[in-house]
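chain below, 382 aa
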Amino acid sequence: MSLQALVKLSRLYGADPEFVLAGGGNTSWKDEALLYVKASGVSLATIDETGFVRLTRACLERILSRTFPERVEEREREVVAALLDCRIPGEEKRPSVETLLHHVIPYRYVVHTHPALVNGVLCSLEGERIARELFGEEALWMPYTTPGYVLSREFHRVVAGWQGGELPRIVFLQNHGVFVSEDSPEGVIGLYTRLMERIRPLFPHVPPPFGGVIQPLEGEIPGMLERIVQEVSAGTSEGVYLMSRDPVFEACLAAEEGMEGVKGAFTPDHIVYAGPAPLFLPTRGGVPEEEEARARTRGYLEEYGVLPRIFLLQGEGVVARASSEKAARTALLLFHDARRISLCAQTLGGPRFLAREDVEFILNWEAERFRSRVSLDQGGNR
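prediction:
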């Protein structure tokens, strides 16, 4: 019965673009022995009982006391193997990268989402102060920490040393999202309602989630971009180009200075689906100058080690490039989300982007590559 309630709760937030995009977020329910957590790559909007992975909590607890290698690649590989070993016999899906955090949280139902309005606070320079003013001891603020095992280990340390009575049921993760937990679905829903009622008035003029038109990029520009991408990446090209002229993008398309509020990455999801940063391309007569576009694309590849997924065509529109129409559409949705976060953060001291080393970790994290691949195939996330 509790798993059925978790399915219903998951779909409630998974289907609402104010809380998750591209099937994002993750959820869980636990008893004393087992944790039921969303499988990596499964969409919350359409999840059923088969979309959760069952793991033994005693096994998960042992992971938290283990010593793992210092080298990132070795550590992450061993952590994944350890998590898979905690599955009960017959389970084949890979659990969410946040599984250990779900285990550590002491309440039975946990719903983790990435609302743009909440991230407007969490990705701003004054975010921690605002969160304390709005929620006081009702919420716990955690500075940005590498997702997955490292974050779970740090949260476990906080919980082990907690001396302030009951652990807050709201956990804000800087540049990431929010965990809301309670011992009943109704409790989770009530907490989320109160949370949004306090945050929404901060941003009365921020536009709603994306509802505009996404269309194929036509004319000579897609051929030019394809040619440039092939040249600078020695023949590697993803091939599908979609464009949006949504009004929320106007300021960052007018001039290069206008993209200051979106020049970096706000959260891991933005990196995974929309890339570490957009690339601004000046235009003349509505078309980029090819040599300038080539030089900028090459410079981007040298700086980030990946090709740009989002191009800002001056005065024209935002273009997403990806391996499929679904992936390109997802990139545009995530970049629109980043723009909404930026507009919120600009009223709270300005945006706070992820540090370069944190961006590089996400770009090279096998767990993120896995869930990106699965989610774009099936419509889920994390």
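Residues 78 and 90 are 21 Å apart (CA to CA). The longest strand covers residues 177-182.
thats it, cya
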